[in-house]
Amino acid sequence: MANQRNTNNLAALRESLQGIDTFYVVNYQGLTAGRLGQLRRDLAAKGGRLIVAKNTLINIALRDSERDFADILHGPSAIVLAQGDPAGVARVLSDAGKANDKGIPASKGGLVEGRRVDTAVIERLASLGSKDQLYGELVGVLGAHLSTLVGLLEALQEQKGGAAA
Q: Which CATH number fits domain 4-128: 3.30.70.1520, 3.30.70.1730, 3.40.50.10260, 3.30.160.20?
């Protein structure tokens, strides 16, 4: 018979993973309680959530949703759910790892918008801006091009000899 605590933890983990298409598996061993608490707060500010559970329970919950991560679930593992801003959550993890000499938390792999990724992709994602920053840059680029187009159309209109009244 299964341990009731494990059964409850598995049910909570399954519920947490429902509808999640971006998460990271990290090694958290070596973080003090204070740093772990700060990491949780920083992740929450970016729409992330850190869940520490036994590898077996994480593996079962992921397999139930047709995701297999058994190859990276060794040693102390936590799963970091990213709901709103995958790049922002990855940046928080990266910054936290750089803030200590152990490099912890260290990414093991993950799932980004439904695709399995390795640590290199997570690091590249962490180097991007947030979604809002990227949207802002896109709007700026589009605005500059539209401004150029308007300038060209005005110059063409003047060249053809008439200004529309």
A: 3.30.70.1730
> Taking the domains of the chain in order of start, what are their residue ranges?
4-128, 130-165
Give 23-81 as a DSSP string: EEEEE-TT--HHHHHHHHHHHHHTTEEEEE--HHHHHHHHHHTT---TTT--SS-EEEE
pLDDT at 1: 45
For the whole model, what pTM was predicted?
0.75
Q: How confident is the model at residue 163 (pLDDT cuts 50, 70, 90)?
A: low
Distance CA 132, CA 29 (A): 32
Q: Does 164 have pLDDT greater than 60?
A: no
DSSP letter string over 90-124?
HHHHHHHHHTSTT--SEEEEEEETTEEE-HHHHHH
